[in-house]
Design brief:
Layout (H helix, E strand, L loop, with lengths): L26 E12 L2 E9 L10 E2 L2 E3 L15 H7 L8 H16 L2 E2 L1 E2 L11 H5 L2 E2 L6 E7 L8 E9 H4 E3 L9 E8 H5 L5 H14 L8 E6 L2 E6 L1
Parallel strand pairs: 1-9, 8-12
Antiparallel strand pairs: 1-2, 1-4, 2-3, 2-11, 5-10, 6-7, 8-9, 12-13
């Protein structure tokens, strides 16, 4: 793995005096990777983080963000498949697995305006943060999401995340191709072929996950979802 220029994307280096004395606890986060076939080639949806963003400005990433307190309470049209839920529960999961999947859907809506789900909003009052999504007459279909990767930001980073990456084919999960709003975190949201995506300015973990996406779409069995985390001696990767 090459050494990145962005300090938020760098491995642990105890000699750097600008880093905090104690590693911050990672915040739970979730990401959704949407793919679709266009003119015979697989493409992936990515957006560029705003220049003024405090975490990895200008980098190209998948839609996603922090898991919020009320995400687990959002109603869904269908729940996670048992095998997906079981994988999410491994390695000290502190939340309900559905909270991660729902956060990925909510963040995708907030950042791209795309509604991941089906029409037919639940009748119950939506929890905080879900009002605009439900106003689109939508309900998430969690059974259509696959869990593809988990990654924890290196220790002693100023901002740390424990992120779960979900994967789905856009044509199977989008209620509507037309964005319902425009976000202020991701700019220039576009569909890229996988080779073109790999040519963008990417965080290291995003580049790694794109390799997992490519392997999956190519029918190459890589085993369970990779779990990436960093220690004082370097990075570690296991399969869940």
């Amino acid at each position: 793995m090459t050494t990145p220029k962005d300090p938020d994307d760098a491995p642990f280096d105890a000699a750097d005096p600008t880093r905090p004395a104690r590693a911050p606890r990672p915040k739970d986060a979730a990401t959704l990777i949407l793919v679709r076939k266009q003119r015979g080639a697989w493409t992936v949806l990515m957006g560029q983080r705003a220049k003024g963003h405090v975490f990895m400005p200008d980098k190209w990433v998948f839609p996603g963000g922090r898991v919020e307190r009320f995400d687990a309470a959002a109603a869904a049209a269908s729940e996670l498949r048992p095998e997906v839920e079981a994988k999410l529960l491994l390695e000290k999961c502190r939340r309900s697995p559905r909270a991660f999947a729902l956060a990925a859907i909510r963040e995708t809506f907030e950042e791209t305006g795309l509604v991941v789900g089906r029409t037919g909003a639940p009748g119950a009052k939506p929890p905080p943060g879900w009002e605009e999504y439900v106003a689109c007459d939508a309900a998430p279909e969690l059974d259509k999401l696959d869990f593809i990767c988990r990654a924890i930001t290196p220790p002693y980073r100023p901002r740390r995340f424990d992120a779960r990456f979900f994967f789905a084919e856009a044509d199977a999960v989008l209620a509507d191709d037309r964005p319902h709003l425009s976000g202020d975190e991701l700019l220039h949201t576009r569909w890229f072929t996988l080779p073109d995506a790999l040519g963008l300015d990417l965080p290291n973990v995003t580049r790694f996950v794109l390799g997992e996406v490519d392997a999956r779409l190519s029918g190459k069995d890589q085993g369970g979802p990779p779990f990436l985390r960093w220690t004082r001696t370097g990075h570690r990767m296991d399969r869940l």
